[in-house]
Amino acid sequence: MKLIFVPLLAVAFSLTSSARAQDVQDVAQVIAHFPVEARSEPADGRLILIFATDEETEPRFQVRGSIESAQVFGIDVDGLRPDTPAVIDAGVFGHPAPSLRDMPAGEYTVQAVLHLYQTFRVAHGHELKLPMDRGEGQHWNRAPGNLYSTPRKVRFDPRGEPLSIVLDQVIEPIEPPEDTKYIRHVRVQSDLLSAFWGRPMHLGAHVLVPHGFDEHPEARYPLMIFHGHFPSDFRGFRPEPPDPDLEPDYYERFAVHGYNRIRQQEAHAFYRQWTSADFPRFLVVLIQHPNPFYDDSYAVNSANLGPYGDAITHELVPHLEEEFRGIGEGWSRFLYGGSTGGWEALAAQVFYPDEYNGCFAACPDPIDFRAYCLVDIYEDENAYWIDGPFGRIERPARRDSLGRVNATMRNNNHMELVLGTNSRSGDQFDIWQAVYSPVGDDGYPKPIWDKRTGEIDRDVATYWRENYDLRHILKRDWKTLGPKLVGKIHVYCGDMDNYYLNNAVYLMEDFLESTSEPHYAGVVDYGDRAEHCWNGDQENGNHISRLRYNTMYLPRILERIAETAPEGADLTSWRY
Known about the structure:
Elements: H1 10-26, E1 30-33, E2 43-52, E3 71-80, E4 86-88, E5 94-95, E6 106-116, E7 118-121, E8 127-130, E9 147-148, E10 152-156, E11 163-166, E12 169-170, E13 183-189, H2 191-197, E14 202-208, E15 223-227, E16 250-251, E17 256-257, H3 259-274, E18 283-288, E19 301-302, E20 306-307, H4 308-323, E21 333-338, H5 340-351, E22 359-362, E23 385-387, E24 392-394, E25 396-399, E26 405-408, H6 409-419, H7 428-436, H8 458-468, H9 470-476, H10 478-485, E27 489-494, H11 502-514, E28 523-527, H12 542-545, H13 549-552, H14 554-564
Parallel strand pairs: 1-11, 15-18, 15-21, 21-22, 22-27, 27-28
Antiparallel strand pairs: 1-4, 2-3, 2-6, 3-5, 6-9, 6-10, 7-8, 9-12, 13-14, 14-18, 16-17, 19-20, 23-24, 25-26
Helix pairs in contact: 9-10
């Protein structure tokens, strides 16, 4: 945020700056560098410093946007040379404590990570420094090539001696998965995205082929796109029986013992169902579309990310249908997913209404920005605070099924600001901003709100509404969209969603149920006390239903195909 001082304040500013400089000098610095053995070339990126008290995992895996987070600080580095010190002092912003001066003296496990950036010359005319995904799904703490220090225990006193850290380790490359009988892997270069980013850009997919795929070369198959976060491989499919020697774990979120065993049981049960004699034969696709801002693109066209919606729908999907014998027509394509994938499923159906025949959107990210979690970006002045006539409270960001809050909007966003300026944290609010915002004057996404203070930019909010507020777009364009979407929209959400996403679903339901000429003729359903990732299963607990996306919607998809397939459509070759 740029501050302008008039002459009247010049003396006061000078004194304040002097006092601040003295205060910074009075606090111990942390000095980090990387040796030439780790990297011989200068580096651009984000230097991230973590202090942790939990010794069970490395500090780099303990950074969260909640009260349980390890302490983290970050600074941008440009052209940092080997053995050249980078300094983090009391003036560097941190989370949860805002400054080194606010940390209590004590024993910590300390670690530093250098998240590397590359230079992109983007089609909108700007030169940007951003982290390229390297096969990990855009995660700073495990991105191959990033430098990090060996964790070590230290005694740190903000009023004590400087602390020196050497980034002596390099994260190793990730081996791509190998093809199996049922799971195939595809990677294609996108002409559309390569033109936007000024370098070769790729899309990937993990394809679950039907039982008998190789034995039935004459068959052509409907296609289901399972949207969601970056998948390292096709998850939830296990030909092997559960491991009888697997030591049961405890999954705190659902208070379930042996959840690792349950996962294996469900994955093997899906395999047995998939290969059974009477199971319908489909192609199921998990898409890889990481980008320099996040682990996926939200599957829409964006001023900052480029034409991912067109690239997926018009480049990747036809390629997959040709390679794996898809039917290749809109009536035979379906979308489903949860959370990010839920928003993507609904958005792709709305923006490409003729290309898909139904979406099943579970616990979708905000689909009405009047309920952007707990923020109304059109009416609220500030995203972090709720103001009353005589006081203010922080706006919550995360709760459990009993309403207990462990994170606020300020927590989440300040963590992201520490991990990366200019929407480069690789985290949730930053990717929403990168996808939905116009390009700023500096070439980076224009902020929806001030990351430090939470003050909302009304002009950016208006841009979001007209381009990505799905409820608003449906209402605005229902005369033309409605006839193409009848029976295609299915939305599911727990009424105790951890991120308050059910609030936007209520608003969407109000609109959908009010539609006429035509009526939307779809489904909106809620899970009582269900948390995030509930997908419409009223018979099982959330810990089970969230593992059954691949079978949850198949009966409804079959019904939809039977009702809507055009005359002469292939309804038999894939029913062997």
